[in-house]
Amino acid sequence: MFGVIGSRILQAIPVLLVVGIIAFALFAYVGDPLASMLGQDYTEAQRAALIKQLGLDQPFFVQYGHFLWLALHGNFGNSYRLAQPVSSLIAERLPATLELAITASVLALVIGVPMGVYTGIHRNTPLSRLFMMLSLVGVSLPTFLLGILLILLFSVWLGWLPSFGRGPVVHLGGWWTTGFTSWTGLKSLILPSITLGLFQMTLIMRLVRAEMLEVLRTDYIKFARARGLTSRSIHFGHALKNTLVPVITIIGLQFGGIVGFSLVTETVFQWPGLGLLLVQSVAVADVPVMSAYLMLIALVFLLINLIVDLLYHAVDPRLRIGR
């Protein structure tokens, strides 16, 4: 177990370095952040002074080395747009994104796995066909279109749920905020979490169904039936357990995707998370924020891959042989 953790940590170091240099190289020459910081009326002397103040007159690798040195100390510099420390902005927006991502993932898992098991066991029933038809809708609809349709139905026509924002939040500890403590906060979470989790739910359902259909045809399942085991024991004690390894992979990667690519949903619902912060930063070429965002997302994926590897060893005893 400790060997797996150590090897993954060693592999993470060069990955973060490569992601950092790619992110910095992509964003360092995109747009002109000075235009948004100086406004329309400025002199060349003011522009030159700001370039020197930000260190933009230095060679690329000097700028990257300075950025990397600060990042190692948890300091990503100041935002060009807001003139605030990037680490403070990320700490302020991260709880909203994680709260949305966790809610969407739980919905996808709690609904998608039972639907996949049911459609795998009862694949020719009308309800299974209805589930498969709905899964096609979930896979086919773009996220932004689904969000707009949900807003139109539940916010504009019915007036049941708010169409934007996070609602009132409560501060827990030094920096964490949550909307779970109020009914308004919970209602604000419903539409964006459904929008973000629907694709993951249909993907999990189809994967579980495909794995269940394959496992139910194996010899050890036939042997379990011949021994007289109950259908419940066969389906949930043997078949479902052997579908968990690929399902864990998809769930882990999809959670990272939800965290990293929730910007469309956050933009549609004006959810005050990291995705909305990135969209606002791209518009003004706020390089420190964009680079820090990509570094953070790379770290999230690395942590998720580590957790997935550990879950592999917990679920599949064959991986523990010889350790």
What is the CATH topology assignment of the largest domain? MetI-like fold
The DSSP helix count reads 14
* Cα Rg: 24 Å
- The number of distinct structural domains comes to 2
The CATH class name of the largest domain reads Mainly Alpha
Give the low-pLDDT segments. none
Beta-strand level of the residues, as a percent range? under 5%
Principal-axes geometry comes out as globular
Query: What's the average pLDDT?
Result: 82
Strand order of the largest sheet: 1-2
How would you sum up this structure, described in words?
By secondary structure, this protein is an all-alpha fold. The chain folds into two domains: 2-72, no CATH class; 91-283, Orthogonal Bundle (MetI-like fold). Helices cover 73% and strands 2% of the residues. It has helices spanning 2-28, 33-38, 44-54, 60-72, 86-121, 126-140, 143-157, 183-215, 219-226, 231-239, 244-260, 263-268, 274-283, 287-315, and strands at residues 170-172, 176-178. A hairpin with a 3-residue loop joins strand 1 and strand 2 (176-178). Helix 6 (126-140) packs across helix 8. The model has no long low-confidence stretch (mean pLDDT 82).
